[in-house]
Write a structure and sequence with these properties.
Helix content is 38%, strand content 19%. Helix 5 packs parallel to helix 6. The protein has one domain: P-loop containing nucleotide triphosphate hydrolases (Rossmann fold), CATH 3.40.50.300. The protein contains 6 helices and 7 strands; from the N terminus they run E-H-E-H-E-H-E-H-H-E-H-E-E. It starts with 29 loop residues before the first strand and ends with a strand. By secondary structure, it is an alpha/beta fold. Its EC number is 2.7.1.156, 2.7.7.62. Keywords: ATP-binding, Cobalamin biosynthesis, GTP-binding, Kinase, Nucleotide-binding, Nucleotidyltransferase, Transferase. Pathway: Cofactor biosynthesis; adenosylcobalamin biosynthesis; adenosylcobalamin from cob(II)yrinate a,c-diamide: step 5/7; Cofactor biosynthesis; adenosylcobalamin biosynthesis; adenosylcobalamin from cob(II)yrinate a,c-diamide: step 6/7. Belongs to the CobU/CobP family.
Amino acid sequence: MVSGYRRELHPLGHKEDSLFPRVKAGLNHFILVTGGARSGKSRFAESLLREEPEVLYLATAVITDAEMEERIKAHRSRRPRHWRTLEEPEELLRVLEQVPSDRALLLDCLGIWVSNLLVAGREAKEIEEQARELVAALRQREGRTVVVTSEVGMGLVPTSASGRVYRDLLGSINQMLAQAADMAYLVVCGLPVQIKP
């Protein structure tokens, strides 16, 4: 059963955004948003930062084909003009070291980051260690920090060995993120369900 978390709503222009809960500024500064493909997780994550005066959008996706190019364009078109976007597919820690700790940050998406590192030939243990360092760095930030990841444990078992490595690795990293986060949401069919606290 979903609690009364949706009672205070975002006064945003998009009809879809009016469904999303307001998370008061200054509280719960590290927020994890997870969900399946096309669940609405990125749109919800963006809504959590709409009232911030400055936001850095750290995007991990790379254009690999026309379909991905269209998805990236759609994401870009939704962002407010005053948001600054950095696209970095692999070296997230290096970027975080250069960003003021008190600036609001949206990191989208950890699932794509893990995939990028695997495709680049990194070993699972190395990626898990990098993720541990990344989670620690995110936890130390002073500004509101929203991290988007993909929920991978609810579907079919991947048929390929590489698919199973990805699923298992991202599942472990998601658990790390959820433990460190102040709040966590699972987005299902465009509706956010608060799962932590």
